[in-house]
Fold Isoprenoid biosynthesis protein.
Amino acid sequence: MIDSSSLLSRPGRWLAAAVLALGSTLVSAQELVPFTASYAADMKKIPVNGEATHSLQANEDGTWTLSFHAGMFVARLTEESRLRLDGDQLVPLSYRYERKGLGRGRVTTQTFDWEAGLVTGEHKKDAFSLPTEPGLLDRTTYQLALQRDLMAGKKEMQYRVFDEDEVEEYRFRVTGERRVTTRAGQFDAVEVERVREPDAKRETTLWFAKDWQYLLVRLSQVETDGQHYQIMLKEATLNGEPVIGTPISAN
């Protein structure tokens, strides 16, 4: 059984990481496209459901803001990144994570000073300062990079990600294609898995709609304790246009 106090530390973080992949679905080779999207989440064997909203918006100064809000049980989670596109390179500028509820509130902040070559911020009330490195991303912008690489036809991807207060390497690979059913209809999707250590018990699989700029339409995750989580697209818009899959009844 799951400890309810972890609903937004483990499932919520999982939901955030998964849904934030949407940000990367809206990138062509040279541009970012504004979007809004909503997802539903559930935990198998446990009667707890969640919802999330996600958006990418252009700012007047030429930067972009990627926002995510999730609610599960009595807890809330918010993530927000500000970034810019430098040629074909995604450049994170700031990141903020905040979790409220269940007596386990937490805030993480990151500020990327590329001229000084430092990332500074706070995690669990402790300040940190670490050097940047070429191509370094945060926990939302790496997912933009993932989708850009999928659209470019890559089958294996890896990223250096500033996760909380340290740098980690994230790896993914394409495992095939399949027809995926969501609340917004059916989509022809590319299947991608998170590559972990051989003895890892956690499994993460994502599906991205090929005909909708590789929009994240579904995710499945199995945790180390065997608990299974899923998220599914409810509705979305790309550049103001609604995302509509093939009606389920048509098949």
Remarks:
- The longest strand covers residues 166-182.
